[in-house]
Description:
This protein is an alpha+beta fold.
Amino acid sequence: MTKKRKIPLRKSVVSGKQFPKKELVRIVRNKEGVVSIDKTGKASGRGAYIGVDIDEAIVAKKKDSLSRVLDVKVDEIFYDELINYVEHLKARQELFKDDE
């Protein structure tokens, strides 16, 4: 009998819903105050998660959610980069969902 593995859950800062960690995008603020997309999910610093959904990324930009959560001013350029990254991830998920 195999042991069932625990799936770590994280809460999206936009929707407030909990998702498995692999279904979210992590945004991190390091000690210097630089905000970036954490593609590995292991970068050190204060992290915040949003769902892999274009609408969530747009709402995050509109409400400036990441600035509030990470306690640092997040530029519009970063939000545009985040929206593009989420679009890319969503497209990859659609492309490879048949392989699973």
